[in-house]
Amino acid sequence: MKAVSSDDFFGNFSALSALKTKAQKDPETALKDVAQQFESIFINMLLKNMRASNESIGSGLFSSAQTKQYQDMMDSQMSQTLARSGGIGISEALIRQYEGKGSAAASSHDDTDLLTRISNQDLVRVQALAQKASTEFVQAVQKEMAEKTSLEAAKDNLSGATPVAGVAAEVKPSARSVAFDSPESFVQTLWPHAQEAAEKLGVNPKAILAQAALETGWGKYPIAKEDGSASFNLFGIKADSRWQGDRAVVNTLEYRDGIAKQEKAAFRAYDSFSQSFNDYADFLTTSDRYKEALQAGKDASSFAASLQKGGYATDPKYSDKINHILSSKWFESL
């Protein structure tokens, strides 16, 4: 394993000060270092965003304040190393732009001003700039993927059977296009559906919505069909021999004898979130395994425990994770 030099070490807090001096004395040489530093922070912010998305659906088995601290240290060092070894192209783009190789030429005086402005910022402001850039980058990629998927779906429909005269070809929404961007929007949009399903089942609607949040990561990771279109499956209900409708075959994490394993499974697919809630209610009421859960009434915690006892999921911490979501701030006002 290659040793990490002091310049490459993420904890070298004097590196930013050294850049200030280098930017004033030799801006041409400092340009690469400044670009790599910015890319390092950008990559680190991307990693933080991904970690935060996982944390929103509950803590892992070995999660703790200590492991999170070391995880943050590892992410910081990995970001630094990736940026130094080529990164994802941001530093090269910055260098091309400010060396005059982009669409507009930049003078050496402009380069010096750029370096001075960046190097004179404190670390918090540089991190804020990188965080904003990384967030905009992720949103742009997601939007582009959603538009591309919708366009491909439209092309597939148009290249298939000839549509009936006067009837437009149906373009199914992509899984990305129906994903939720925050827990707030997830709760606000699906709460009425949860209330309707809860009325049919005679249980607490919070428990139903919390289970949907767990199964989909607050709606950020919906199950997609092979063509990228949305399955609208909010509860991870599999498509067994009883299911005659559409389905989505994806990789899923199952626990066998307490050991997590990746498996490929078929899940039920619907035309809307409303259909998903309706089928969830039918699924529970037509199975003897969940009679105890339906007797929990308004006790959301008891409902979750009975679901797990009935074998709804193989995750041994399934009910604990639902309770964790129930205690989150997004459920306090419901």
Automatic annotation (TrEMBL):
Gene Ontology CC, one term: periplasmic space
Source domain of life: Bacteria
Record-linked InterPro entries: Flagellar_prot_FlgJ_N, FlgJ, Glycosyl_Hydrolase_73, MGlyc_endo_b_GlcNAc-like_dom
Keywords: Bacterial flagellum biogenesis, Cell projection, Cell wall biogenesis/degradation, Cilium, Flagellum, Glycosidase, Hydrolase, Periplasm
Pfam families documented for this protein: Glucosaminidase, Rod-binding
Domain Mannosyl-glycoprotein endo-beta-N-acetylglucosamidase-like as annotated: residue spans: 173-332
One Gene Ontology biological process: bacterial-type flagellum-dependent cell motility
Cellular location(s): Periplasm
Main localization (coarse): periplasm
Gene Ontology MF terms: amidase activity; hydrolase activity, acting on glycosyl bonds
Stated role: Flagellum-specific muramidase which hydrolyzes the peptidoglycan layer to assemble the rod structure in the periplasmic space.
Family of this protein: In the N-terminal section; belongs to the FlgJ family.
Entry protein name: Peptidoglycan hydrolase FlgJ
Organism from which the protein derives: Marinomonas pollencensis
